[in-house]
Specification:
The structure is a homodimer of 698-residue chains.
Chain A lengths: L1 H8 L3 E5 L11 H8 L5 E5 L5 E2 L2 E2 L13 E4 L3 H14 L3 E4 L10 H16 L3 E3 L5 E4 L4 E4 L3 H4 L7 E5 L3 H12 L4 E6 L8 H9 L6 E6 L5 H13 L4 E5 L4 H11 L6 H10 L3 E3 L2 H5 L2 H5 L9 E5 L2 H14 L8 H10 L10 E2 L9 H11 L6 E5 L9 H15 L3 E4 L3 H8 L5 E2 L2 H21 L18 E2 L2 H10 L7 E4 L2 H11 L3 E6 L12 E5 L2 H17 L6 E6 L5 E10 L3 E8 L10 E4 L5 H9 L4 H5 L10 H16 L3 E11 L7 E2 L2 E5 L5
Parallel strand pairs in A: 1-2, 1-5, 5-6, 6-7, 10-11, 10-12, 12-13, 13-14, 15-16, 15-17, 17-18, 18-19
Antiparallel strand pairs in A: 3-4, 8-9, 8-11, 20-30, 21-24, 22-23, 22-24, 25-26, 25-28, 26-27, 28-29, 28-30
Chain lengths: 698, 698
């Protein structure tokens, strides 16, 4: 795959179909850029009406070329664009960038069908297409700038360690503009448009292989092909390359807008979160967020933990940094007592030395305080990262020394440092030494926390198995609902603890089963196709004694008969003891495949959900972390003097369900509700299950 | 009060005690500023060792002046500062600004005691003090800049419609710097320090009376005096002046840092939220947030609703604006069909016209599209506010026309407009026409949503009764726990529906009571001082028949006797029917006074709280809004085919509890748990209550 996209990123020759003399036209802009930004391969403008365009000789049509260009830019609209794509396929172009709009992003079925058809014809002949509705690709490492974006006229490019791959044209260059404005070089800024053939994720995998990158930014309106993104993430993680992704269309309103922008299909947003986390990708909330921590990534720091020390000449900065750190999950561990004693010897008596360290306004009359405390703090082992805030300073302050000494401090400790300096005169001496500067405590702390958490996430993702490519949609009829006995048997075979039970065909069998189990039992009518047993009077709990068992058995038989369902028997089951009913479910997402849902059970699981999603394969530790994030976490740990819940068998059961969903593609969905949890491991039992399975009738 | 602080904001004469020739010293800076920024009153430097300081004749000591200055700046440290304050009180200074540090913000008990003592002496003689640990006050309307901040050397002041009142020195000028950098004029930037006498809230009330202000910003590390803030808010609301407050110390770490910064006492953060909301004050999260919507406030727009229309040449901006709007609670209502038809006649076929309106990249080749669609959209009544995003443009675009036409559009509609323009060349023509420009969709939408929601909040606060000043702490012994019968009687008298019950002294009485109630009853042992009845076996539910009632009665008597508690009798109560157990509680906060807590009840109310706090007085509508924000809101509305809960009597009960707490200061706390709620109004009943009351034994 990567080899075929090599021609998109680093082509040896480029044809521009619809080449224009006017560099402000879509067909003129790429020609200008190819000249301006030093592309060294061959460039062939295609224009049947002019001999020369922007000082280059044209050919009248693609077929007039002696050999096929590796990359073709299709800058003509509508029908002409479709014809040009076919011509590219004909002569053996490797990759075509289709800039024309008006295909899959419209509501017009004919335009959407035309898009599908042209992709099919191109693929059949080995041509890969970027677009349609693409602003183009730009590689400032090679000068292959096949884009009509206005941005590169306004903000001068500089090759650098950042790559941006985006579905949207604007969002390929807005982050570029923000980063360039901060002096950061950007190599790749690619916009894939409708992703009708090559997707943003597939291109991201090719870009992630560029060894010159230290940060990869993605803008996605849809993830129809998670396996490509998983591959990009795996390539990136193998090299320690962080990926930050802005996936828009989080909300119904956003999804509707995305549909008419790039024809994007809606993803379930919590699955996007889960998928990105599992593959070590950080999710940005918006454009500002996408580039907020860029300087931190580019420094090459390896954060060792979450303990932050804040240092400022302003108490308010100390307070706000402490608030922001707590809220972002960073610890403000106190400095060691010896360190504090040494700081007290330097600072005025009313300064704070525990952490945060408040130099106080005394810095105004003695700038040396700043330089004196840093070496002391540098020697303290109880810090993983630092925030240095100088919210106000001026001519009375040795601000250049502050920058110099902080840079030396960062060098000495090797630990991440963020600077808060809203005044430009204060920011400059820090920034000029390569330190990340922010205008507020909140921004600085959140960027630092993201940087640290992202490293943890990448480490946790490790060498994750690649995500499977989607299988073609099954042609089988609507999934069949198994009866409860079949469902429980399926769970038991998968290694999930199931309540002791027996399927009984006769009342005598039921009585015998109840006697074998002992004590009161549950008696439940069993029939495939019945999902809501209670509503048909098929659930009898605490049934005690032969007569009661017989009565319950007959009630089940009558209930099913009355509702017109076949009677497969009655399940006689032990009454489960336990403390809390959890749920454990699974289904298949059309994009992300098997999804396991863990969390609190009970009647209101849809109305007041307290659940988390996991994408298999996952470990018991991941299930535990997911539960730790839920509202019911305190119950699991034990509250009000109650013992903790014995949750381990549930963790194992969740992993087993994930495995089952991967190994048995015929299972459409599965819901264990309740999964009873007690304070002893043996109390973890599936009490009921609803399983839908595809395939032939039993 | 305001009159005494008039001398702080607009003094006719100022003495500087500890006046220095060096303008980079604390005693030199204010003298420089008073000259530089055009203060027209009298200025008297006090310095016993020099005849002249910064070109002004000095006096050797304050008492050498022929008459007292209205304002004195105390720029000497420690003991000398204390002596100077006493001297100010002696000669009749109205307000003193104490810049010295090392008092209440330290951990030193002697320093804290010294602060309390000097405040007491000053107050006794009618002197008001700002500080200690104050950076000073600055009023650019009058030139009374009694501050040693470095900021005013670096960023030129300009009088304008913004006031900033802050405990912290840095946070009085950081917002100033950010606003001035955006061209906004600032009149007041005051830093009150330790608030030992005049508090930031008291000074805010004085500043809020300035008719020149359109926006008031506060930075608070503690709110020990909510009544002053309530007064400031009332003054502001009466004039339509919005207040945005940054209250730091949200977290334990932040509170600890605030303690050593300004000696701030910790407030319970959810009460801060509730208090600010009730008084129409917007709460900012951090410094950036504090000034984020400033331009919107200064425009004088009056938003009529929450329907936002987004317009952009970028589909991605449309998608991200839609996401951000949904997440911020703004609606993306579709434009009217007629409007859409007119837009379709202007825009290319692949453009989106519903809302968001996506002009598409066609704008690059036809800038007139922008100007053509605005008048069409202006006529559509289904919009309350607009977002216009031009994330990328350049030389091919008529960006100046965009700015001009959008300004005309804003003028024509009178509705709020926010602009997203990360490129400076695009931002400039909008900004120069006075439109609020943001660099990202998230920032723009959040500022707009804040502006709209803040107006709603101010309108809802209306003419709220001022918050009562705190009463002096009671000297009574620890509050007494009433017994259940007393507690239920107290609730019933307050108009709260209580379960039908009778306190029975003998088993015969209990039997008679049970017979009178009919059906199974609850029998509960009753004794003052017993909060957890279940644990002593004092709760018997579903007791049916004479024998069972007798047995339960005797068990209660025995249980209390066994635990050494007096036996006040047994309560025989009806068994309540209902659907959900809510809780309804109240207590007294040392700062905010009576607090009512509403929400979900049950065993895990502490471990998994789903509650909201309200500060009385409040209305039933406010209780309903509070419940609407809770997790259990769907249950109240009715889920899974269940009928809605009959919540009205609960709303009334919550209001009654609030009234009770205001009217009966002796009630220390009150907990109704459970308050049963059913689907019929009569099912709303208090089943049990725990009330603590101060005062003498019964």
């Amino acid at each position: 795959m990567t080899s075929s996209l090599q021609a998109a990123l680093d082509p040896r020759s480029i044809a521009v179909i619809g080449a224009s003399e006017n560099p402000d036209k879509i067909g003129g802009r790429p020609l200008l850029y190819l000249s301006q930004f030093g592309f060294r391969g061959e460039v062939w403008p295609v224009n049947p009406r002019r001999d020369e365009v922007q000082g280059r000789r044209t050919v009248p049509r693609l077929s007039a070329l002696s050999r096929a260009p590796e990359l073709a830019i299709i800058a003509v609209p509508g029908e002409a664009a479709v014809a040009a794509l076919d011509e590219c396929a004909e002569i053996g172009v490797k990759v075509a960038i289709m800039m024309a709009s008006g295909f899959g992003e419209t509501a017009d079925p004919a335009a959407r069908a035309a898009e599908r058809a042209m992709v099919a014809r191109a693929r059949a002949r080995g041509l890969r297409m970027i677009g349609p509705n693409s602003q183009g690709l730009a590689n400032f490492g090679t000068g292959a700038v096949a884009s009509f974006s206005s941005m590169f006229l306004e903000v001068e490019p500089r090759d650098g360690p950042v790559g941006i791959v985006s579905q949207s044209g604007a969002m390929s260059v807005v982050p570029y503009g923000l980063l360039r404005g901060r002096g950061i070089g950007v190599r790749h800024t690619h916009a894939t448009g409708n992703d009708a053939d090559v997707t943003v994720c597939e291109l991201a995998a090719a870009v992630a292989a560029d060894p010159g990158l230290k940060l990869l930014l993605l803008y996605l309106e849809s993830i129809p092909d998670p396996h490509h993104l998983a591959e990009a993430a795996a390539i990136a993680r193998a090299r320690g390359l962080p990926i930050v992704a802005l996936k828009s269309g989080r909300t119904a309103a956003g999804q509707a807008a995305a549909q008419s922008h790039t024809g994007a299909l809606a993803n379930e947003d919590r699955l996007v979160d889960a998928f990105l986390e599992q593959h070590g990708i950080w999710r940005a909330r918006d454009t500002t967020d996408l580039v907020a921590a860029a300087e931190l990534y580019l420094k090459g720091w390896r954060p060792a933990g979450r303990r932050m020390v804040a240092i400022s000449n302003s108490g308010a900065t100390c307070v706000m940094a402490a608030d922001a750190a707590s809220q972002a999950g960073l610890d403000l561990a106190p400095l060691e007592e010896g360190t504090q004693a040494r700081l007290r010897a330097i600072l005025p008596s009313f300064a704070a030395t525990r952490n945060p360290v408040d130099i106080t306004a005394a810095l105004m009359t003695n700038s040396a305080l700043f330089s004196q405390i840093l070496p002391v703090i540098a020697e303290d082992p109880s810090a993983d990262a630092f925030l240095v805030g100088v919210p106000v300073a001026g001519r009375a302050y040795a601000v250049d020394d502050f920058g110099r000494d902080t840079a030396a401090f960062a060098q000495a400790t090797g630990k991440p440092v963020v600077i808060v300096a809203p005044q430009e005169l204060v920011a400059a001496p820090f920034r000029s030494r390569g330190l990340p500067v922010f205008s507020g405590e909140g921004e600085a702390v959140r960027a630092l926390a993201q940087f640290i958490a992202h490293h943890e996430r990448m480490a946790a993702a490790g060498e994750r198995t690649p995500h499977p490519a989607p299988s073609s949609p099954s042609a089988s009829p609507a999934p069949r609902l198994l009866d409860e006995a079949e469902s429980l048997a399926l769970l038991a075979r998968a290694g999930i603890p199931v309540v002791r039970h027996r399927l009984c065909r006769t009342a005598d069998e039921a009585v015998a089963a109840a006697a074998g189990i002992g004590g009161p039992v549950a008696v439940k009518g069993c029939s495939a196709g019945v999902a809501h047993k209670s509503e048909l009077g098929l659930v009898h709990l605490g049934v005690d004694g032969e007569a009661a068992v017989r009565a319950a058995f007959e009630a089940c038989r009558a209930g099913l008969a009355g509702a017109g369902h076949p009677f497969a028997g009655a399940i006689v089951a032990a009454m489960a003891r336990g403390r809390r009913e959890l749920m454990l479910g699974a289904h298949r997402d059309p994009f992300f495949g098997p999804v396991v849902v863990v969390g609190d059970g009970g009647k209101y699981v849809e109305a007041m959900p307290d659940v988390a999603v996991l994408l298999p394969p996952f470990s018991e530790a991941q299930v535990r972390r997911a539960l730790d994030g839920l509202r019911l976490a305190p119950l699991i740990a034990g509250v009000r003097g109650e013992p903790p819940l014995a949750i381990e068998p549930y963790l194992a059961a969740a992993v087993a369900v994930g495995r089952l969903m991967v190994e048995r593609p015929a299972i459409a969905s599965l819901d264990v509700n309740p999964m009873m949890i007690g304070t002893a491991p043996g109390e973890c039992l599936a009490l009921d299950a609803v399983v839908f399975e595809e395939g032939s009738a039993p």
